[in-house]
Each structure stands twice: as structure tokens, then as C-alpha cells.
From TrEMBL:
The chain crosses the membrane at residues 12-29, 35-53, 85-111. One of its GO terms (molecular function) is ATP-dependent diacylglycerol kinase activity. Keywords: Membrane, Transmembrane, Transmembrane helix. It comes from marine sediment metagenome. The keyword Transmembrane applies. The keyword Transmembrane helix applies. This is Phosphatidate cytidylyltransferase.
């Protein structure tokens, strides 16, 4: 149990920083929606391709788990990492909603993800 808690904080911090970076760039600058979608889409594609390479090339999977030891979960060895879904979700929010609503949606994702981690830890899960 202690080992899982230790690996969750770097992961949670990574998710917080990812979400806040997206909100900072998209919500607080004059960058166009189209350019934001291209940049975030490229990041999402990079994450997705990385996950697919991990699934089909065991050496890449081992290397990824070594490099991202504190961020990637053990159970994600054989599936798409939740961070990939996280970034894709942010991309969909920007694609679907106006700037303010998309920014708030991403902030709610940051707060919700962090709150869920704290509650899980408090309940001993």
C-alpha cells in the first residue's frame, strides 16, 4: 500500500501540471483555437503512439516504465495510459466548447482528478 501511495503523488503532480499548462496556454493567451487544437492534437498523438509502441515492443515498454517509474502505473503495462486519455479529453473540450468553457472544463478535470486521489488515499485505496 505504501508503495502505491508513493507512486501516486508524482503521477498526480504530472496530471496537475499537464492540465494547468493546457489552461495557461489556451485559456490565458491569445493563441488561436485552431493552433491550440493542432498543438494539443500533436501531443495527444505523441502520447497515443508512445502507448501503442509500448504495447507492441516489449523493450520500449520496459524502457518507458523505467523512465516514467513514478508516473506510470504497473497496471498500465498492457493498456493505454490514463494520461493519454487525459490529454485527449482536454483536446475534445477545446474542440467542442468555447474558450472559457473549455478552460473551466480542464480546470475541473485537474481539481476532480486531484480530489479523487486524495479521497482514495484517505479511504485507504
Amino acid at each position: 500500500m505504501v508503495k502505491k501511495e508513493r507512486t501516486e503523488w508524482p503521477r498526480t503532480l504530472f496530471h496537475i501540471l499537464t492540465g494547468l499548462t493546457i489552461v495557461s496556454i489556451y485559456g490565458l493567451t491569445n493563441i488561436s483555437r485552431e493552433l491550440s487544437l493542432i498543438i494539443l492534437g500533436a501531443v495527444a498523438l505523441f502520447f497515443l503512439l508512445g502507448d501503442l509502441f509500448r504495447q507492441f515492443i516489449p523493450r520500449v515498454n520496459r524502457l518507458a516504465h523505467k523512465i516514467f517509474k513514478g508516473i506510470i502505473r504497473q497496471e498500465e503495462k498492457r493498456k493505454i495510459a490514463s494520461t493519454t486519455y487525459y490529454v485527449i479529453g482536454c483536446w475534445i473540450a477545446i474542440l467542442t466548447f468555447p474558450r472559457l468553457i473549455a478552460s473551466i472544463a480542464v480546470l475541473l478535470l485537474v481539481v476532480g482528478d486531484t480530489s479523487a486521489k486524495i479521497i482514495r488515499q484517505a479511504k485507504g485505496r
